[in-house]
Write a structure and sequence with these properties.
The structure holds two protein chains of two kinds. By secondary structure, chain A is α/β, with parallel strands linked by helices. Chain A is 28% helix and 26% strand. Chain A has five helices and eight strands; from the N terminus they run E-E-E-H-E-E-H-H-H-E-H-E-E. In chain A, the strands form two sheets. A five-stranded parallel beta sheet of chain A has the order 5-6-7-3-8, sandwiched between helices. A three-stranded antiparallel beta sheet of chain A has the order 2-1-4, with helices on one face. Chain B contains ten helices and no strands. Classes of the chains: A alpha/beta, B mainly alpha.
Chain lengths: 200, 222
Amino acid sequence: MRLSGRQISCIRGGRGVFSGLDFEASSGEVLAVVGPNGSGKTSLLRLLAGLLAPAGGSIELEGGEAELTLPEQAHYLGHRDALKPALSVRENLSFWRDFLGGKAGDVSESLSAVGLGHAIHLPAAFLSAGQRRRLSIARLLVVRRSVWLLDEPTSALDTAGQDLFVGVMREHLAGGGIIVAATHTPLGIEARELRMGGGK
Amino acid sequence: MTALAALIRRDIKIALRVGGGALIGVLFFLTVTVLMPFAIGPDLPLLARLGPAILWLGALLASLLTLDRLFTADHEDGSLDLIAMGQTPLELACAAKALAHWLAAGVPLIVATPALGLLLNLDASATSAVALTLLVGTPALTFTGMIGAALAVTLHRGGLLLAVLVLPLSIPVLIFGVAASQAAISGPLSFGTPFSILCALSLVSLVVGPFAAAASLRHGLD
């Protein structure tokens, strides 16, 4: 499987964020998107997730499932956690498993894998920022999707959480997955680097 | 199908829990209706004549009150991004959300109508006529209101803008809802004509609402 972008440009609010961007990532590879604030890291991830329309260029996924689009084969882990405070940890995750569908795993197993096994009945309103992040990561595990688009995935995670996340990413890559991650801090995993220009 | 069922179940659950706001609508409906006799005075025939209109206005304003949260909550916490990325078409997801909203916030209004009819000196047949027109008409309010809710999300302005956008769209529903209730109570028109038009309005909004809301959300998600 290969994810590639050719000559992509992005315009937001009438301002060109970036243009002429080329990148490529194959199965088992991490593409680390780095660059200063405002250089368009999040915009690039949202373009890949289909939440923004590119102003030019093309994005392609070769070797994926033919009848699905790239966003339908991708997980997007953004700044916002997509959790409902009124629902319990288990209800939050079960909802995303049922809604995102596809090859779905076991909710309890995924929660234990991210170290939330003890809190399944707790309303999400009582989770700390790090725990909320762990719960979002559990969403990546409970539904299998081959492309992960991660925006600052390790923010709010403690050291143990970061180690755990590295393990989760390694497993995904070993299964032939692709990861595109926007990050300021090293991910703790070998990655191909995509450097975004400084706010042209 | 499981995806839509999951979405409906989740939205109803959230609406019925603390802070969900579904029952706020009923309380508001109750308050508006209880205030009316104080404003109009204890003239029983007059209250009975105005009753259907008061109930319809109360239901309209109450449904407007809760529509605001239809998409904003999902937009604020990022759920809307993931819903848009899913394999479920956004139009169907919008329809499912509106249906859940109607079940959690619209149906309680209809259930409360008989009790509120008593306060307005409506007899049993008049109350059931109003309840029946509300049952048929409130889906139209929810599904046209959804368009306004989607626009309000993309324009980053909630509340007031929603009211300004949605109230004009609900005028036809209000006209034929009240006309059908009046026809059932006092005539001289037959009940069937305005009631059929009300049904038609609901059916049209069921089709148009999800497409318009999804288009608006797609355009504004960035």
